[in-house]
Amino acid sequence: MLDGQPAVNINASQPGLFFRDETGIDLFKVGPCYVGVDSPNNPDIDPIGWPGNSVGELWFDQRTSIPITAPNLRANVEYEIVFLGTTDFTTIGAPSNTVGITFTATGPGTGTGTASYAGIVQPFPVLRVWDGTSWASCMPYIYANTIVSDVKPSTTNHLSGTLWWNSGTGLMYVLYNDGTNPPAWTQVSSTPVG
């Protein structure tokens, strides 16, 4: 391709309009925004796609902190165990069957257990832009969410201010971080709510 020459990729998994810059090395994507749970042009996921991203390229990241059932987990993706249920997570790459353990799945599991994407704290999709080094969030704020569970959630993958209603005891907690101690679930109700 010549410098500035446009090219259209009609591949259904990564459609878009591209052009080459004056260095003759890099391709830049003009559009559209990529939508999915995997970052675009990720050679680990799609080895046929363009190896790398263009500055300003958009990705509507559909990963959320909402738990995913074991049969829907995918290979080579990092997850955190949320609920064991009847799933043996050690058969798909986890070092142990422990809630809060992070592991890279070797494939889908079986049973009723759930896991969430590791390190993802938002309960909603996020628009991201490639800044030349990493995928930066286009949203200025990431909000705390609310968790309903009879199992104490991890304190590392949730934002301060996240509420947890313990459905087993009926007590409400808030994730509090005073900046000097590790984040902790602090009880905010003295009697069961429900």
List keywords for this structure.
mainly beta, 3 domains, 4-stranded mixed beta sheet, 194 residues, 4-stranded antiparallel beta sheet, elongated
Task: Characterize this entry briefly.
The protein is an all-beta fold. It has strands at 6-9, 16-20, 27-31, 34-36, 58-61, 68-69, 78-83, 102-104, 114-117, 126-130, 135-137, 146-149, 163-166, 172-176, 184-187.
Word description of this protein:
- The N and C termini lie far apart (65 Å).
- The mean pLDDT is 82.
- The protein has 3 domains: 1-54 and 131-142, no CATH class; 66-119, no CATH class; 144-194.
- The chain has 194 residues and is mainly beta.
- The protein has strands at 6-9, 16-20, 27-31, 34-36, 58-61, 68-69, 78-83, 102-104, 114-117, 126-130, 135-137, 146-149, 163-166, 172-176, 184-187.
